[in-house]
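Tokens for Ribosomal RNA small subunit methyltransferase A. Go.
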Amino acid sequence: MMRLLGPAEIRILADKLDLRPTKKLGQNFVIDAGTVRRIVRVADLSPDDVVIEIGPGLGSLTLALLPSAEHVVVVEIDPVLAGRLPITVAEHGAADNLTVVNADAMKIALGDLSGHVPTALVANLPYNVSVPVLLHLLEILPSLRKGLVMVQSEVADRLAAGPGSKVYGVPSAKAAWYADVRRAGPVGRTVFWPVPNVDSGLVSLVRRDPPTTSASREEVFAVVDAAFAQRRKTLRAALATWAGTAPQAETALRAAGVDPSTRGEQLTIEAFARIAEQKP
Ligand code: SAM
């Protein structure tokens, strides 16, 4: 096990770098080694896993991931943090299994990862972009078999929600296309510096096959977006523009075996896929 970062060392590092954590980049760094160990334990990595970590920041989580995986590829948007990370890692015990990519995770492709093919995602995601980053990675990296991410508590609830839940919505339905998603425990706000205004939660993901459908992923997601854009309306009304008219929406819904008077929050991703197949 590598020596992990504690609160005092984080402060010293931040001072050295003249770091002013920004809200825009969701820069809240974990200062509690116990939380970092817990994340790695719940991630349940194998020695042959290639891990992708988004937003390593000062390296709190990275230091714990390195001894637990074959390789760790980190993607950090902040050039100062990306530049400093190899130095911090070297200071904590040499590791030759780290690749640092200084880039925006929203824009990366597999080809940007220096030939590494990630099998697991483990990250304390930047909160303002956690859902789009997660969906982007699941889409561009089919090799990802599992994930353990820390996100804002409310987002964890939404990602893991199933049909019929009050918080089931676009993130839940889209994430279900790629993975079985579960909450994996709460994390209090005091483990971060600076302390954020919200609590966090762990979310575990296990890759699943997408629903069998003749519709494309984009076509299915277009139905999801339309259904939840007006979540109080019945599907017949919410999908009127998508289908052309409300009667056409009703015909498509009936052909898909879905009651036109229900709402999107009742539908599984499989039902959304069946509806997408019926687009007039
Ligand atoms: N993993 C570190 C930890 O636990 O202490 C830092 C986590 S902090 C919540 C989020 C990190 O993501 C920051 O280092 C921030 O600079 C980085 N970040 C923000 N937006 C990003 C993006 N679009 N792509 C890559 N990294 C990003």
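The pocket of S-adenosylmethionine is lined by residues 25-30, 54-58, 60-61, 75-78, 81, 104-106, 124, 126, 129 (CB under 6 Å).
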